UniProtKB/TrEMBL annotation:
Belongs to the peptidase S1 family. The keyword Disulfide bond applies. It is found in: Secreted. It comes from Bactrocera dorsalis. GO terms for molecular function: serine-type endopeptidase activity. The lineage of its organism: Eukaryota, Metazoa, Ecdysozoa, Arthropoda, Hexapoda. It holds the Pfam family Trypsin. Residues 56-293 form the Peptidase S1 domain. It comes from the Eukaryota. This is Trypsin II-P29. Keywords: Disulfide bond, Hydrolase, Protease, Secreted, Serine protease.
Amino acid sequence: MFLLKLISQKLCAITVIIVLSLTSLALCNQQLSKAYPGVHHHTDDLERSRGYKFLITGGYRPKVANLTKYLVSISHANFKKFFGDAHFCGGAIVKPNTILTAAHCISKRLYGFQMLRSIIVIAGTPNRLQKTEHTQIMKVKRVAVYGESKTEKSVDIAVIILQRNIRIDNVTTGVLSLTDHPLRAGEKCTVLGWGRVFDHGPMPATALYVDLEIWSRRKCQSYRNFYAPSLLCAGVPDDPERDSCAGDSGGPLICDEKVVGVVSFGIGCGTPGYPGFYTNVYRYLDWVRANLAYRLHINYILMVKCIFFLWLL
């Protein structure tokens, strides 16, 4: 009886501690949500209680979707119910076997062999829910994320190396050139993707386009709680609802058929007074080029093990 009474008292104490902890966290979260607007990396990880806002007011589906050939869907390998419904990020083909995307799309908790098996890259499918003769489903060979061994760890850029080349026909698939010059304020650019058409809304089947303009660095820096030197920002001040949203992450910001930015994050989706933030590709051009799959990447640890094994023989 004494033992049961002791266990009961301890369980009651633990329950009280858990309840108090959860209450404190809820109050803290409530205070934070009042103080700051909802920042998200264009994913559905963070829930907000804000009302729906139509997003791509100025967006469109062009009659000739000539930029869609550069776009890929990064998806979980296991679809939920039907083809294409596990899409979570976009990316751009910058070499037949290399995809440029956002670092936050390649979650660190998925690093290693399991991550390589758990995601796929889908190319050649403007309608992400429709598998056609042009659809190419590619497996991942390896990934490179900026900042893994550097001090600048907040840079949101990564490349995915595929196990085999995407067949490039320049109609359903194409290789997007990297920018070769720094952007000027006012330049007209286009973002495209399968992201949500409004905050918490549905994802479209066919990729949508939205035209934006590059903001000056000084104007971007005025958003000091969000801006970093790795970023550029873009939007349309007179039409703030033009923006990227959840599901567009990792997709390309394209100017003159060159990728100049990678969709990183936004303050909500189409929130008046706020631009969208994109990783500045030109700033990390040397890193991107160094990680394009031009050379043979040697696993030195495996090589040493093989040499040691042969020596034992």
